[in-house]
Structure formats: structure tokens, C-alpha cells
Amino acid sequence: MVNLAIVIVLSYIVGSIPTSIIASKLARGFDIRHHGSGNAGGTNVLRVLGWKIGLAVILFDLFKGVVATIIVARLFWDPSLPFQNRTPFEDFTIVQIICGIAAILGHIWTLFAGFKGGKGVATGAGMLLALAPVEFGVAVLIFAAVFSSSRYVSLGSIAGAVAFPITMFFRENVFNVDIQGYHTLIFFAIGTSLLLIYSHRENIKRLIQGTESKLTSFRGSSSQK
Fold first, then answer.
1. In Å, how far are 35, 131, 144, 190, 205 from 165, measured between CA atoms?
2. Residue 119 domain flag
3. pTM
4. FRET partner for 109 with CA separation of 20 to 30 A, picked from 11, 13, 216, 225?
5. Which helix (H) or strand (E) segment is 137 a member of?
């Protein structure tokens, strides 16, 4: 139980690294939360600081999810879980899922910035990349298609989050792909998608009201993301 608690806490800490705040302070000497939309996420960095810094922040946030899921999950690893595993997944996969979720929570409610972080999309994407690369790839394509047609990053992120469990469902039940641990992973995928959609609740309100800002430039534009 102690080992599992340690990797959960470490994963949360990794997810809590406030990449956008650190980048904005190093690059411009200010806190990104005081500029643009006030969100400590990669999209706000793209708009305020430009695509190079923004892309670096997004990639690092994605890397946090990968690190928590693949690397941190192996630290202090005990072959036996402190609870009975009734799923078809191997014990280590269960630990990976738990660590990935902890990292997402850390990104959204970061320990180092007053528990006010980003939306969790990039860190969640890193976890999904580590666990289900095919579904992740489809979700990225959906995000790109929706974003390129609408220029709304938030709408693309929501569409990608929804596409992940739907893709998994269709691969298993329509195309008859045997996905190991599907009956566990599908609920995990749905839960992760709901968490990311919840973190975009303010964006959804603005999309409905027609006040959400489009990402048409990468520096100095008005932002709502």
C-alpha cells in the first residue's frame, strides 16, 4: 500500500509542474495567469508568447503524462497490489492508469500554483499515448480536423476527448479488434474523457454563447482558453 501511495503522490507532483508559468517567467518575466485568458495552459501560452514557447509547453505537459504512466509507475513497484484486481488487466497496467490520472489531476489542480492549473488535455494525451496509441492517434486526427475547420482549440480538445472512447468501442465491437482489457479500459477512457470535458466547462459555456475566442494568431490576441 505504501508503494502505491508513493507512486500516486509522485505522479501528482509530476503533473503539478506548472510548465506554462515557469516558461512565461523565464521568457518574459511575468506570470501567464495575469495575461491573455488567465489560464495556465498551453493554448494561452501560444497566444501570448508565440508558437515556439507554446509548442514547447504543450509537449512538456504531454511528456508529464508519459513520464507518470511509464516511468513513475515503475518506481517502488511491488508485484502485488494492495487490493484484489478483478479486471483483465495486469496489475502494472492498473498502476499505470492510476498514475496517469494522478498526473492529470496534478495538472488541473497544481500543487505549485494555488491548485489552479490548465485543462489537463496535454497531460491526459500523454497518458493515453502510453496506454492506447491507436485510439490516441485517432483522437489527435479528430482534434486537428475540428480545430482546422473551426479554429477553436477548446472545441477540438473536447472532440478529441469524445473520440477516444468511441474509437475504442468501434474497434472492439464493430471491427472486432481484440483489445486486451477492453471491458476495463473502456470505462477508464470514458472517465478520462468526462474529466477533460468537465475541465472545459467554462469553454463550453462560451461556445454556446458564441463568445469563445478562436486561435487565429499566436501572439497578443484576445484569449478565452
1. 34, 13, 17, 6, 23
2. yes
3. 0.81
4. 216
5. helix 133-150
